[in-house]
């Protein structure tokens, strides 16, 4: 399993309509990808970065297929809407490979 987190700030001159149009296309494309297990989006209530998305993939190969194909044009378009774009890929911890919850 692989989690890919992308964070960014919207450029000051970007209107919500333009950003929502891009986000709608991006989310639709991501949701169609083989190997995608989950997609989440968050806003930072403390300021910056303003946006964080997390996609969870069955494997690194599934992410790479999307990252090298369908993501490229979306990423180029995002660069016209946002700055401070950062991407991180996370795998399971060898010490805590599954989530821990109180009382279990």
Shape: globular
How many helices in DSSP terms?
3
Largest sheet: 4 strands, antiparallel
Assign the CATH topology. Alpha-Beta Plaits
- Tell me what the CATH architecture is: 2-Layer Sandwich
Neighbour order of strands in the largest sheet: 2-3-1-4
Structural class by helix and strand composition? alpha+beta
Strand content: 25-35%
Give the H and E element order: EHEEHHE
Tell me, rounded to a whole number, the average pLDDT.
Answer: 95
Low-confidence stretches: none
Share in helix: 25-40%
Compute the separation of the termini in Å: 22 Å
| Number of separate strands | 4
Radius of gyration: 15 Å
**Broad CATH class:** Alpha Beta
Q: What's the number of domains? A: 1
Structural summary, described in words:
With 104 residues, this protein is of the alpha+beta class. The chain has a single domain (2-90), classed as Alpha-Beta Plaits, CATH 3.30.70. The chain contains three helices and four strands, in the order βαββααβ. α1 (16-31) packs antiparallel against α3 (71-79). The chain is globular, with a radius of gyration of 15 Å. The two termini are 22 Å apart. The mean pLDDT is 95.
